[in-house]
Amino acid sequence: MVEINLKTPLNESSVRALNIGDQVILSGRIFTARDMIHKYLCEIESVTMPFDITGGVLYHCGPIVREINGKYTVISSGPTTSERLEMYEARMIKRFGLRAIIGKGGMGSDTLSALRDFGCVYLQTISGAGVYLSNRVKEVLDVWKLAEFGESEAMWLFEVFDFPAIVTMDSKGNSLHKDILAYSTKQRDEIFSNI
Q1: Residue 38 confidence (pLDDT)
Q2: How far apart are the first and last CA of the chain?
Q3: Rounded to an integer, what distance in angstroms lies between the CA atom of residue 174 and that of residue 179?
Q4: Would you state the CATH architecture of domain 3-193?
Q5: What is the pLDDT of residue 178?
Q6: Mean pLDDT value of segment 43-50
Q7: Predicted pLDDT of residue 188
Q8: Which of 38, 60, 104, 177 does the annotation list as catalytic?
Q9: Is 38 known to be catalytic?
Q10: DSSP β-bridge partners for residue 142
């Protein structure tokens, strides 16, 4: 496994050089987006945001955030299941030129095609480690749609450092999730054929 340090914003050539199995240590700006933000951005024609997400790194995360002394502090920021955003992700990648999606569990064939077509990767981060990952958030830079969507569904802009992830879907059309499913299915079939 290769360990690669990346600093956002990511460019297409550095993303296209990544392969499934590469360990990524990410630093820089990333933004969160869950169901409501995805739906909103895919349904609205034009949008004005307080920060630019073009070419960015989207994190499937509904963080627990507290305002302390007028400043936001992240208490927990673990990944949420990505598959339920499959219906939106290819459009998000195309519309905003996203370079990386961070989440858990992988995504489907439409997203995999968009990763290949537009130069993006899917990064799996540590599930069940929300507090650890919140310690990788150096600062909350901004938030959008907090009043309208609530804390977990708002879009948060984080400055992160040494944020760990593994490339599990690359821009070459490879998917570790798909490979594991195929291998597991083959193993299951072999086991059952001997019963």
Answers
A1: 97
A2: 36
A3: 8
A4: Alpha-Beta Barrel (3.20)
A5: 85
A6: 88
A7: 84
A8: 38
A9: yes
A10: 157
